[in-house]
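Anyone able to model this chain together with zinc ion?
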Amino acid sequence: MSERKLECEIVRDLLPLYHDDVVSEVTKAAVSEHLSECADCAVEFLKLRQELPEEKEVTPKKKFMRFMRNQKRMRILSSVLSVILVIGLLTGVYFLQLQFPVFEVPAEEYGAERIYRYETEEEYRYFVIVRAPHYDYMKMDTVGMEDGTLSVRILKPLLSRKSELMTHEAIFVIPGGYEMDGEIIVKREYDRVVCGETVWEAGMNDEVPEYVYEYDWYEQHGGGCTLDVENNLIGFDCADGMFRWWDLDGNELEGIPEE
Ligand SMILES: [Zn+2]
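re: yes, here you go
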């Protein structure tokens, strides 16, 4: 690199500092001298001045205009933030209320299709297949009665999507035991189950289909199953990849049923 070229390099590195007047007097004089002799660097300096305009004089009018511009920006920003905040809050409230299904689904909207009572080591359980529209976060609630009658009802959150397409979908297992300090201490066997009307009485559906026990086992040990009930068939899609179909009476089907 020639000496001249090197000098130009150094001057160009210094130009921003020279522009801001933060160089020593000696450097300032040297750069000035170079700029007066070197057209290329002088052009560079002009470009730089255009890119970095010096703070111009601020008149009261300009100050006022700038203030108004900032005010407007702040107003827009705070409106946008408010909208985001409100949307966030509403979303939060919606998802929070989904956790509390306390509103009763009208009894005429659903009916219990099958109820089976079966016994485990700890308790009696009631496997209930319900024909009902599907609500997000619906759950079955039980109101046990002393005279051996179990009343069940379906609850949903206040705001819950209702899907008419997904009828005949709800499967509930009602535990029949009393819990104390996390331990089930009393097995409770009901003779009658009421779901709007009496839907089960001791002696009805005494023969419990295999799929009830299979479902129970998968719930307790196998990571769970997704059940699909349609056209009086019940399908299992279980966590370990098991895939089986039965008719509701408990006869297992070979393969996957045709549509
Ligand atoms: Zn130069």
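The two ends are 83 Å apart (CA to CA).
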